[in-house]
Request: fold
Amino acid sequence: MADRLIRHDRRVAVNSLGAAFAMWRDRLAGAAVLLVAPLLLRAWVEGQSAGAATLAAAIVGALLGAGVTRSIARRLSFHETDGVLTVDALNAAARGRYRAAGHGAALALWTAILVIVRPSLLPLGLAGYGAGALAALVAERCWRAAWGARPASLGSAIRAASRRPIAGLAGAALLLASLPVAQLWGPSAPPIWAGAVTAVIALLLTPVDDQLVRFMALVGQGSARILGHHLRAWTLFAPLAVAGSWLMIGPVVAAPVALAATGVLMLLVIRLLAYRLWRRPVADWLVAAVLALFGLIAQLMPPALPIALLGVLWWLHRQGQARRWLLA
Reply:
């Protein structure tokens, strides 16, 4: 039974990639990224100390392990309730083999990356993956034991409330109220605090419902309409936060606030465009890979970052245009 689950999802992944890279130009761009990204990552790691590189490998490994565990859990949950292989997904042995196959593929990819970048990072990189995967699995089991499956209606209600303009107003008020407290920690604290708090609040105000995005694309809504629906709280929060921090302290705080809010906006646009093309697990991994690539470019070739960002946005938008009025 496990073989049917594995074959089914492998075929889904192959078809999704085939649809995303249907044209030779898309394949050429993907091949270029696969060739350049490991070289950029290796160059960045070589510029770091051994301790910093090892710590980074352990942290990234832990995040990767936790992310793979959550993705597998979501996929199995889908198979249990809405998939065509419900009987297979409810079988404990089949679920175990499915998890093993998913982690095996992720571990193979992570090992290959570590070998290319710096083989000495393998021990802690793999240990971090195992720790992250185990922690996510324990958290999932504890949640299910205490609360059962999370009600979809509750999550939808929370996402809808956080996108309302009143939520943006409340977020700006919370940020501005915290700035006097940050000033007590010294002159260098407010810019760091303001940027970090802005990023957290902006992320909370811009939740993305992937099913809603795909439905809006299905019924013919364009990228601008979908983006506007998800930006109702952000459009009130960002101007108030920037203007208020400028008036309270000055541009030294307003600048990181504007930068953090703009960064979250770019992340939202990329996620929305990706969700038009792929289902959430595939889209999340591709978005994470794109963000990692942007980070490397920002470290090694900062002037090329805007060009890379515009190129990714243009490609995702062009691919998504073909999905309007279609059920992908």
Summary: DSSP finds 15 helices and no strands in the chain. The radius of gyration is 21 Å.
